[in-house]
Design brief:
single chain; mainly beta; Rieske Iron-sulfur Protein; 4-stranded antiparallel β-sheet; 3-stranded antiparallel β-sheet; 10 strands; 39% strand
């Protein structure tokens, strides 16, 4: 499977324990940076009511939706119990201080889930 890595900006563009929005061919994505410089990317849409996850509070490796407090594990995209729901994630890597997203891998992940 070929990958479709795109450069969406520098790691320094996102504050520690913060987020930014990336507008991509796959849609509006939230890109999170934790205090230990881990980077995660997922749809910028809470599974509860569709609120923008990019406006939520990042703590540890989770984000809390600003609208209703639903907590999402950044590594898995799964809601933290007792909440329920899941957010589509995208592979991300940092090279030379630049954040790269693989949009094709996320599409393949969705195709497998639909089968």
């Amino acid at each position: 499977m070929s990958s479709n890595w795109i450069d969406i900006g520098g790691l320094a563009d996102i504050p520690a324990a913060g987020a930014r929005v990336a507008h991509t061919p796959a849609g509006r994505l939230a890109v999170f940076r934790t205090v230990d410089d881990k980077v995660y990317a997922m749809d910028d849409k809470c599974p509860h009511r569709g609120g923008p996850l990019s406006q939520g509070m990042v703590y540890g490796h989770k984000v809390s939706c600003a609208m209703h407090g639903l907590n999402i594990d950044l590594a898995t995209g799964e809601a933290v119990a007792p909440d329920e729901g899941c957010v589509r994630r995208f592979p991300v890597k940092v090279e030379g201080g630049r954040i790269l997203l693989d949009l094709s891998a996320a599409s393949a992940e969705l195709d497998k889930g639909a089968a």
